[in-house]
Amino acid sequence: MVITSVVSGSGTLDSASIKSTLFEAMSRHPRLMRRVSTFNTFYILEDCKVDMDDHIIIEQDRLSQHKFLTILNTLKSQNLDFSKPLWKFHIFTNVAGKWKFVAQISHCHVDGASAVRLLSDITNYTNCEQKSLVTPPLQTRPTSNGNKHQFSFSRSLKMLFAVSYHFIRAIVCARDCTQRLRKIVVGRQKCYWGQLGTISDIKSIATKCNGRLNSLLFSCLSDTIQSITKERCCDDSVKFYVATNMRGYEDNIVLGNNTGLLLLELYSEHNLKLRVKQFDLKLKESKSSCEMVSYHIMMSIIGASPDFFEKFGITIMDKKATLNVTTVDGGDTDLYFFNQKVEDLIGFVPHLGSTGIGVSFIGVGGKMVVGFTCDEGLGLDPADLFNAFLSSFEQHKVVV
């Protein structure tokens, strides 16, 4: 899965210095200088020769906005070359009088949050005379917050039994009706991005709804996904589990700091204030939920010998539908790319779950941008999903 980002701005870029400086910035992260290969369904990184010209391409022809969007859609549908590190930068120096920077980075190298940090380091480069970029080490997992729980034998015993229960139930339970939502995905993604409002305003609305920013966003997301399930299944009982990266907006995550994952069930509650409050509690509980622990235990066991388990028809993603979510805070400060102010940031294509649907909440310049992605095989329009999300958000505003 390729994470795609586009930033743009006005002004003139120094094409002569961009290429070498960008490559030097990427070279400071050894992980990004290695190619990705697979072994027993696991991704591993191997040393390889890296040529700057294969990864950084500068287009100096004058292009119209329509022509650029056509090229962008073509790039998004192309697979990166697995014989090389899975990242590529395309720099368009003149698109209707503006410059465009398109970044493509495989999810195998970094997750969405790490990609944001990486590109933020690059776009904030403001001294073209400087020969090198000093960037912090790339983190592909969030660091532990250092919080320690006091040991309790009864609590540990309870956790052991609960994890065992969820683990066994996940293996033996019958397939639920989420199967009816699934279609064969074709690998081509359709995306739609829209602006929701300022982060400060959204936080204010969330507070009045007895929640926080994330709990409000998830409440709106619940309405959005329920509209799909009602259309496809005519059944309100469909369970969606959200595999989500909460770094950036939430407080410190205990177990999530080691896994980068939370499991959260989307559910329907007509009282919006009550729903936001319940989501707030659910988010806190999900950080150390037994089901999340059992999920990772099961993934580890099945991942160690997938062929053996598949003979028995055991594949973890067939037991529930998952929707992937990324939340990243863009901050309130302006971004710069080689002394030129970044005027627009489209954001990142989110990682798709087993349903072929993904959503990203990304802060850009103090504003919240929401992006939906759907696999073309689903027959869904991501713009319709955004409009459903926006409609739910407007209802929450009216409530407060």
TrEMBL record:
One of its GO terms (molecular function) is diacylglycerol O-acyltransferase activity. Residues 22-184 form the O-acyltransferase WSD1-like N-terminal domain. It catalyses: an acyl-CoA + a 1,2-diacyl-sn-glycerol = a triacyl-sn-glycerol + CoA; a long chain fatty alcohol + a fatty acyl-CoA = a long-chain alcohol wax ester + CoA. InterPro entries: CAT-like_dom_sf, O-acyltransferase_WSD1-like, O-acyltransferase_WSD1_C, O-acyltransferase_WSD1_N. Keywords: Acyltransferase, Transferase. One of its GO terms (biological process) is triglyceride biosynthetic process. The keyword Glycoprotein does not apply. Residues 256-395 form the O-acyltransferase WSD1 C-terminal domain. Signal peptide: none annotated. This is Uncharacterized protein. It comes from Entamoeba invadens IP1. The lineage of its organism: Eukaryota, Amoebozoa, Evosea, Archamoebae, Mastigamoebida.
